[in-house]
Amino acid sequence: MRQRRLLRFHSLKRGRVRQTWNKHNLFNLLNYRNQLNTGRTLFQQKWAAKSVTRAYHGEHISEGKWERMFSRRLLSAVDMAPAYMARHDGSEQAAGRGSGKILSEDQERFVPRNGRGRDAKKMTPYMQMTFAPQERRLDVAIHRAMFASSARQARQFVIHGAVTVNGKKMKYPGYMLNPGDLFQVNPDRVMTATGLPKPPTLAARQKALKVKAQERAEQAAAAAEAAADETPASPSPKPSSPPKAKEPAEPISPEEAKKQEIAELRKIQDKTKWLISSSKGQLSAKHKIAIRSLQKQVKKAMSAAGTQKGDKSVDTVESLSTLLVTLQLTPVERKAEEAAAAAAAAETESYPDPVTEEEQDILRRLIEEEKTNPWDPSKPYMTPWRPRPFMAPFAFIPRYLEVNHKICAAVYLRHPVARPGKTEVPTPFNYATSQLAFNWYLRRS
Amino acid sequence: MPPRIGSSSSLPKKLLNCLDTTLPSSVPSSVPLRRPVTAALTASQQCLFSTSAPREATKPQRLFREWLKTSGKKFQHHDGNGPLYIGRLTDEGEENRTMPFPSNPAYVSEPVLSDAARETIWECVMVNKMPLKAVSAQFSVDIRRIAAVLRMKEIEKRMEAANMQMAIPYANTVEKMLPRVNLTKNERPFEPINDIHVHSYTMQQLFVPVSESREFTRSDAAKAFGGHILPPDSKMRIPELITLEKDIAKGVEPRVAERKFIAATAKHEAEFARRLKIESIKEEQNKIRVNSSRNVEFRFEKVNVDDVGRDGRARSGVGWRYGVPFNDRRRGAVKIPTSVE
């Protein structure tokens, strides 16, 4: 179903250009030919121009909303050169017969008449600014900053709560950015949107593995429970668990036992706290839930140990501590441990053949790359991260944004403006088409 | 209802005979061998449940697939050597490689600041303590962009210190795909830093009679367009640059003039900081802070009850008034915030 809709959206037959990075869209963009207006009434020309431009600009925005957003005031800016302004007060432009003296080419090169550089004589493409108000929208700006592969995907990011504006969560894709607003997207979302997707078979395999592991853990837990029920009086602690519970070698008083038990539980509690604080941002939601439930259990056990006396609580300490150990082993941690072990092994090993400098460089680069771009099956995208195909022809950042891709944040500096010969609104259409579209929307006011 | 084929009918058998590949020549010719049946024969090897032939690719689909294999192939994987746009042949016959949209020559992909350039800007301001205006003039980067770069660099450094997740492989790849500048000396100016907004009042044609002997300057023109229109000289973002150029035009040594420029921008910045401080102190004086026993701080501010206006709906009013219903749930009322502080 989804595939069908996507095919229609990027239909090769209709050849609409859309705001996406799709390869079909690239083909459509390549084959796009300017609108032919001969033999059409003015209304037909405007209608056609409006429909083709709106298919690209905010196709997900309803027509009424866009009409309200539309502004007939088109913004532009001119560059004023301080060197010119310091030497002239502008009266030379009215010299002679009223429109300035004619300068020779050499003179003009030395002092440009209006001080605006070489593009000054070019026309300012005002009509290409028709859809400038849309560039203020949060979802469009996210797409323009290259954080999402389409404006629709950017919209989804906002709705799903992955975007903040000035540090606060913003859930409205239609939020109009103000100059100076900083927006930031969750890096995982950006990497998913711009990276290669996981092959479906791999994802399915990993999911199956996860389910299997869960089942096994459940079985183990059930078996342990059964064992604990069988021998409640004589618990046999495993020597491998780090916070070792002391084996009652000699009979101790129940008061002392209780104290010891509480101390053990406190240790576990401290460790869970450390686990949460040390691995901020690395734990998955499921993991966090598990840790929280463990904390609750510990609390319960502590209060129970404080009030009632009994031998059963010793094995609660035991089971809780083993649970803590399993929780500690996140994929990231496991990986770090493995890496440390490998590094230690590499240090002790002696190299049989001398490695050339080139090889060393390559190795160093690979190790560095592995550090910044590791294999991590817990990510929703293919790891190590690689860009999605057909991304480069769509890679450009308009000047009204300043983007920091590392932290997936961007600042909306100012509203887009037209300058002599240049426009800041990325639009695939020629001047005439944009002009016709502009005239279509003028009818409202 | 059309008559059904009974079990005694011979037709299915005949059809079965038809499907048999080793067709005996003695089969009666009353059952013609039509195309769909032969198509089903080939298709049946892959797809047992369907007897229809797969649909043929349309012309656009065929062209698309051909393009993917030929000229479209270079766009698939980026080789890491700079931008790769569709481009267009210019009138002179050269290929313009900065145009992402072949039909729109007015939009070109303009370079962005590289990571090294952003680091340089951060160092100039945060380590060397240069005034923002001076940095802007030195690198020809808009002062608002300088501020944005600093703001995001600070966030980046904080995230790095806190060991938070960053999109480093993505950033490296994107930087290779974009045209970029390193802010070295030999590059062209990055962007205009003293551009002024074109006021709509100044877009009309005016006929103002003036005497021939009069010097009609920029400020006179501004006055002619409307009383509130400012001349470009007072709209400049870095007016100190004009003073610098005037000094150079007068014959002051460039180095001395530059030093004077930096001093002037530093003075302006200090003055601005002082004003901000005074404002914040004033605001603080209007507040009364009370620490409660529950680690909660209460801040009391003086407000005027008459601020709410006659209908109790004025924007500057504080608090909820009895009998004045909110209309934020009314149909059609826009709930999207207009600004985030």
UniProtKB/TrEMBL annotation, chain A:
Chief place of localization: mitochondrion
Limits of the RNA-binding S4 domain: 136-206
A GO CC term attached to the entry: mitochondrial small ribosomal subunit
Compositionally biased spans, kind Basic and acidic residues: 244-258
GO-annotated molecular function: rRNA binding; structural constituent of ribosome
Record's keyword annotation contains Plastid: no
PROSITE patterns hit by this protein: S4
Residues covered by region (Disordered): 211-258
Family label: Belongs to the universal ribosomal protein uS4 family.
UniProt-recorded name of the protein: Small ribosomal subunit protein uS4m
Organism in which the protein naturally occurs: Cladorrhinum samala
Lineage, top ranks: Eukaryota, Fungi, Dikarya, Ascomycota, Pezizomycotina
Automatic annotation (TrEMBL), chain B:
GO BP terms in the entry: mitochondrial translation
One annotated GO molecular function: structural constituent of ribosome
A cellular-component GO term for this protein: mitochondrial small ribosomal subunit
Superkingdom of origin: Eukaryota
InterPro entries linked to this entry: Ribosomal_mS45 (IPR021036)
Protein name: Eukaryotic mitochondrial regulator protein-domain-containing protein
Taxon lineage: Eukaryota, Fungi, Dikarya, Ascomycota, Pezizomycotina
